[in-house]
Write a structure and sequence with these properties.
By secondary structure, this protein is an alpha/beta fold. It has one domain: 3-Layer(aba) Sandwich (Rossmann fold). 31% of the residues lie in helices and 18% in strands. It is built from five helices and four strands; from the N terminus they run βαβαβααβα. The protein has a four-stranded parallel β-sheet with strand order 2-1-3-4, sandwiched between helices. The two termini are 26 Å apart. Bound molecules: flavin mononucleotide (FMN). The site of flavin mononucleotide (FMN) has 13 residues, from loops.
């Protein structure tokens, strides 16, 4: 199989987050299969974990921060997306949605997508996976 360009979105910003280990394990496993993988981490992305203005809300997108424009280009260029998400209060964690909401839905659209979920609870994050922000 030829290498794929894949992005792994890490959905937790919590101090001491377990998601970092989960996401790194996913990244390593994909790299071992020779895929070109990049971790998208809300803590280092540039938004500091908050949506202040999504890219598609800029009147002139060239005025958006450079990290936003570059990350959007990576999403558009990706062959597939992997979402790594914990479950917070039976739902998606805010770190995941505030990261992914920065970018236009069209950038994600029609891409194959995998969801890796985890939690301390008996369902292993299943309820978050069920509502994860998959492209249409
Ligand atoms: C705010 C909050 C809400 C949580 N709600 C749930 C929940 O509804 N179900 C569950 O199984 N675990 C829940 N947990 C436990 C998390 O699944 C567990 O702490 C997990 O490690 C969180 O991922 P993180 O360490 O990467 O942030 C919750 C944790 C937090 C911090």
């Amino acid at each position: 199989m030829s290498p794929l360009r894949l992005l792994v979105f890490l959905g937790s910003t919590r101090d001491g987050r377990l998601g970092e280990n989960v996401a790194k394990s996913v990244v390593n496993s994909l790299k071992q299969r020779n895929h070109d993988v990049e971790l998208i981490d809300p803590l280092t992305l540039g938004s500091n974990g908050h949506v202040s203005q999504p890219l598609h809300f800029y009147k002139d997108q060239s005025q958006a921060p450079e990290w936003m424009i570059k990350t959007n280009a990576k999403i558009q260029a990706a062959n597939g997306l992997i979402i790594v998400t914990p479950e917070y209060n039976c739902m998606l964690p805010p770190g995941l949605t505030s990261m992914m909401d920065q970018f236009p839905p069209a950038s994600y659209r029609y891409k194959p997508c995998g969801i890796v979920c985890y939690s301390m609870g008996p369902f292993g994050g299943l309820r978050a996976a069920a509502v994860s922000p998959l492209p249409e």
